[in-house]
Design a protein that fits this description.
This protein is an alpha+beta fold and about 180 residues long. The protein is built from 4 helices and 7 strands.
Length: about 180
């Protein structure tokens, strides 16, 4: 008996354009919640910590969060989402970036971050991710984020705090 490979090839893979997600829609909320649980389960394994708050968030807690969401679908399902807020100082805080395991290494995170950069330009963008989540750390580094600190969230588990300053943003003038 021969085995057939059922994975989509690069040429078969197509993503819809990222769109704003309406969490008041029960189906959208359910799909986002399912996506988030699948994505954070992978991160939990990578960092050796299953206490990631969104992994244990209820649908009601997700719906009530004060974040804006963009999502992207493939032909079958919601495969990625990014959430953000604006801080009082105007910085853009990326709160969550989730990609379904079936869509890893397919450009989903890049498409979402490109769309976010387009609709929410910011002089400063911040994000944090599990230090041991090397794929996420590398993704953010490729996008111009630099590590600015670490925070311990549990014994032996840290998150890396990262930021990116927009190169076209005016730089402060320092008098010597």
């Amino acid at each position: 008996m021969t085995s057939q490979r059922h994975d989509a090839t690069e040429s078969d893979w197509s993503l819809a354009e990222p769109v704003q997600l309406d969490l008041s829609d029960p189906a959208t909320l359910r799909h986002l919640w399912d996506l988030q649980r699948a994505s954070y389960a992978v991160e939990a394994r990578l960092i050796g910590f299953d206490g990631i708050p969104p992994l244990h968030e209820s649908r009601e807690q997700l719906r009530a969060c004060d974040e804006s969401f963009l999502g992207v679908r493939d032909e079958l399902r919601l495969v990625g989402a990014v959430a953000w807020t604006r801080l009082p100082n105007g910085a853009l805080d990326i709160c969550r970036l989730v990609v379904h395991p079936v869509a890893h290494r397919r450009g989903v995170a890049t498409a979402l971050l490109d769309a976010l950069d387009s609709i929410e330009p910011a002089e400063l963008t911040i994000v944090s991710t599990g230090t041991a989540n090397l794929p996420a750390v590398e993704l953010y580094r490729r996008r111009g984020f630099i590590p600015v600190g670490k925070r311990q969230i549990a014994s032996g588990v840290t998150v890396t705090l990262m930021e990116r300053k927009n190169a076209s943003a005016p730089q402060p003038i320092h008098n010597s």
